[in-house]
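Weekly sync, protein design subgroup
Attendees: M.S., D.O., the rotation student, P.L. (late)

Item 1: inverse folding check
M.S. brought a backbone from last month's batch and wanted to see whether the design step gives back something sensible before we order anything. D.O. pointed out we never logged the input encoding, so this time it goes straight into the notes. Structure tokens as presented (561 positions):
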């Protein structure tokens, strides 16, 4: 099997071009920001810039203690550089995904016998569906994954070092990454590091290093995070109490008390998430398993480390009562390396593997059938009005391209004239065509109900600087971001701002009941009025009819003059 410099170069540039086309170019597309996540993180960063307070996170001008500061800093710097637009809001996530892939490249390049595995592992990582989805979406999990991956990778560099100077240097960098991870996601960074590294050292019978290698990373992690930790303790003394007990202890142990707030899920929740998140490479997991069986790889320290990196954080997150799909992201860098190695080894034997070829054949037929099904659906929808039209023509064309590439890949796999790497590269880039048109095939409901930007922008013509704005908790983020106002009042339920609206200085921002709404409208009469942004189901709670009303799907705007 070829591991020539040619294929190292080709695979590296394939990964680079793939990253630019799939992750960077679509960021500024017409795919609207999704509420509440994207507009929340966009708005917190905007308020940080507007207020000049880079210590205490604020949402709608109120204390917001769900996360530390690093992720907001990254988003704010992006908005300073690129402006207040979709590209800037999503850039930090995309950059973090790319940098994680680069770390994977250097990690594998250092320890792999065949250097082509380095760019292949990075390409597999970028091709994971969950990495792509989160890496082009504004949340903080991509940044968290970058820093945790950096910490775990540099720790292993230190573990493998040949000199004390090199050891301490790598451990210092590990500590810096760990400190950044802590400042992005909190104490979970230390937990993931400990539960990945400790079992590995015990497996290696190097358990004494638990007590000798930990000090340098801890010291540097503290040095990185201590200045901000002291600063926020001075400006917002209650931050650490709330952040530790509510965002960590309650989320891990007491999620069942409030299933809505803490996202209670069963223990097995992450099993389908991690398999689905690996698509399309998950289709070749049987091939990867075959490769590992042939190599007996887990006798080597590197693969033991990668196995511990995947397995024990997976168990840890599964044991938590509160779960979100994105929590599992830190496991995927190691899983991408294991997947790349396993498939590569399986095909090392004359470039043939029955499971590999059967999988390709099945995938090819599935996509051909899918294209035919989409065409039939479109024809029926044209003649039967009750069937909603979808973007079948464009989506079908892209599915067809994907299927054709897989078919070509299938027949190439039986030819000795083509190398295994060329087949793997073809498989890797096949989904790229579908990714590139994601914004064009997004259903209309996304641009209305959960992507509220256009609705808010259309309503802004009725709003003056003197208008008081009242918003439902599911619309407050979009209203603040698109109107560039943080002085939003909340209607009836504060949602994630419950802690802030219980504080004396912010209590007035929560308006409850018809009496409270009547009083607010009366106070604002002749002063600019009250503009309300609500979900449609809350219309009956309003005591008077607005002067101007507008509806779109389940969204409602009203102006009380």
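Designed sequence read out in the meeting:
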């Amino acid at each position: 099997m070829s591991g020539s410099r040619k294929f190292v170069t080709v695979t590296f540039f394939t990964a680079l071009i793939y990253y630019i086309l799939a992750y960077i170019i679509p960021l500024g597309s017409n795919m609207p920001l999704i509420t509440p996540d994207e507009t929340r993180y966009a708005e917190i960063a905007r308020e940080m810039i507007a207020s000049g307070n880079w210590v205490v996170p604020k949402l709608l001008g109120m204390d917001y203690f769900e996360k530390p500061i690093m992720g907001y800093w990254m988003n704010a710097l992006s908005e300073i550089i690129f402006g207040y637009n979709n590209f800037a809001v999503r850039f930090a996530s995309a950059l973090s995904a790319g940098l994680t892939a680069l770390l994977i490249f250097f990690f594998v390049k250092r320890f792999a016998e065949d250097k082509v595995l380095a760019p292949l592992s990075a390409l597999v990582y970028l091709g994971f569906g969950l990495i792509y989805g989160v890496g082009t979406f504004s949340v903080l999990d991509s940044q968290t994954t970058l820093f945790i991956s950096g910490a775990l990778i540099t720790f292993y560099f230190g573990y493998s070092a040949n000199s004390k100077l090199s050891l301490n240097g790598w451990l210092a960098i590990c500590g810096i990454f760990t400190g950044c991870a802590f400042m992005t996601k909190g104490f979970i960074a230390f937990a993931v590091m400990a539960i990945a590294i400790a079992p590995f050292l015990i497996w290696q019978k190097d358990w004494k290093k638990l007590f000798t290698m930990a000090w340098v990373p801890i010291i540097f992690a503290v040095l990185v995070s201590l200045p901000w930790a002291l600063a926020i303790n001075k400006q917002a003394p209650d931050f650490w109490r709330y952040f530790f007990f509510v965002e960590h202890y309650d989320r891990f142990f007491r999620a069942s008390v409030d299933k809505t707030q803490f996202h209670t899920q069963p223990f097995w929740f992450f099993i389908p998430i991690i398999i689905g998140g690996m698509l399309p490479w998950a289709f070749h997991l049987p091939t990867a398993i075959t490769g590992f069986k042939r190599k007996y790889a887990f006798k080597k320290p590197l693969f033991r480390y990668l196995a511990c990196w995947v397995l024990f954080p997976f168990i840890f997150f599964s044991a938590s009562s509160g779960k979100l799909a994105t929590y599992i992201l830190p496991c995927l860098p190691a899983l991408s390396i294991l997947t790349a190695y396993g498939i590569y080894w399986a095909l090392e034997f004359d470039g043939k593997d029955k499971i590999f070829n059967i999988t390709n054949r099945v995938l090819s037929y599935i996509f051909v059938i899918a294209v035919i099904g989409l065409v039939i659906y479109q024809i029926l929808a044209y003649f039967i009005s009750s069937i909603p039209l979808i973007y079948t023509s464009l989506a079908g064309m892209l599915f067809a391209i994907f299927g054709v590439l897989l078919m070509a890949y299938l027949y190439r796999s039986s030819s000795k004239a083509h190398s295994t790497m060329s087949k793997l590269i073809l498989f890797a880039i096949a989904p790229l065509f579908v990714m590139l048109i994601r914004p064009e095939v997004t259903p209309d409901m996304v641009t209305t109900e959960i992507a509220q930007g256009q609705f808010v922008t259309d309503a802004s013509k009725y709003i003056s600087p003197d208008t008081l704005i009242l918003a439902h908790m599911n619309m407050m983020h979009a209203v603040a971001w698109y109107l560039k106002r943080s002085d939003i009042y909340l209607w009836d339920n504060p949602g994630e701002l419950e802690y802030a609206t219980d504080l004396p200085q912010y209590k007035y921002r929560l308006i409850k009941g018809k009496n409270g709404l009547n009083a607010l409208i009366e106070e604002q009469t002749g002063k600019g009025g009250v503009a309300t942004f609500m979900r449609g189901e809350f219309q009956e709670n309003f005591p008077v009819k607005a002067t101007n009303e507008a509806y779109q799907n389940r969204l409602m705007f009203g102006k009380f003059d």
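Discussion: The radius of gyration is 26 Å. The mean pLDDT is 85.
Action: P.L. to compare against the previous round before Friday.
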